[in-house]
Design brief:
Elements: H1 6-10, E1 15-19, H2 27-36, E2 41-45, H3 51-58, E3 65-69, H4 74-82, E4 88-89, H5 95-104, E5 108-109, E6 111-112, H6 115-123, E7 128-131, H7 139-147, E8 154-157, H8 166-170, E9 178-180, H9 191-202
Helix pairs in contact: 2-3, 2-9
Length: 207
């Protein structure tokens, strides 16, 4: 694990790449390209059989802070921790996952889409959340409304965000960073393109 808090991790770069990886052999060159472009926080979604080995491989890249995304339950949480994940991200928040994540001590970014989700997280002592799916959960107006009653909460909106729309999200005071899959396009690995996309994303600024 890492000695960084989730707050520190969210502030390392304005965009966290959301990575779906099918081939373990792509992990290191992909991570190297992202870090070279200025994006050091990497979220490897646990949607594919390659994810666990990819996390372990990416951790060997200097400068990379590698976490696991799409963590759905305590079993997946433990698998991510065993692989060396330095933080975990979930699309939603359940009591069992939240309690296990807090007990483990790993930096945790649970998904929220409404006030009840945020209150459930705050009951666990959490104040940093993923707002997901951002574009289809009401977008910026919804996050503004949700953030009002929860002044200490800070967010990483994810889902449907692009290079064009990211600045609007990052301009919001409660937003520390955004998650984006556009930085790592699907298809054959192209490290030069990924580095260029990462450089564009890293140039964005949070509020």
């Amino acid at each position: 694990m890492t000695d960084k808090s989730i707050d520190q991790i969210m502030c390392l770069a304005p965009v966290i790449p959301v990575i779906v990886i099918d081939r373990v052999e792509d992990a290191v060159p992909m991570a190297e390209a992202l870090v070279a472009g200025g994006l050091t926080v990497l979220e490897v979604t646990m949607r594919t059989p390659a994810a666990i080995d990819a996390i372990a491989a990416m951790k060997r890249v200097p400068g990379a802070v590698v976490g696991a995304g799409t963590v759905l339950n305590p079993r997946m949480l433990n698998a991510a921790i065993d692989a060396g994940a330095e933080f975990v991200v979930s699309p939603g928040l359940t009591d069992s996952l939240g309690e296990a994540a807090v007990a483990s001590g790993i930096p945790f970014l649970p998904g929220t889409a409404n006030a009840g989700d945020i209150m459930r997280g705050m009951d666990l002592g959490l104040s940093r959340f993923k707002f997901f799916p951002a574009a289809t959960s009401g977008g910026i107006p919804a996050l503004k409304a949700l953030a009002g009653p929860f002044g200490e909460a800070r967010f990483c909106p994810t889902g449907g965000i692009s290079l064009a729309t990211a600045p609007d999200w990052l301009a919001l005071d409660p937003v520390l960073c955004v998650g984006g899959s556009w930085v790592v396009p699907s298809g054959p690995l192209d490290p030069a393109r990924i580095e260029a996309l990462a450089r564009e994303a890293a140039a964005l600024k949070a509020s």
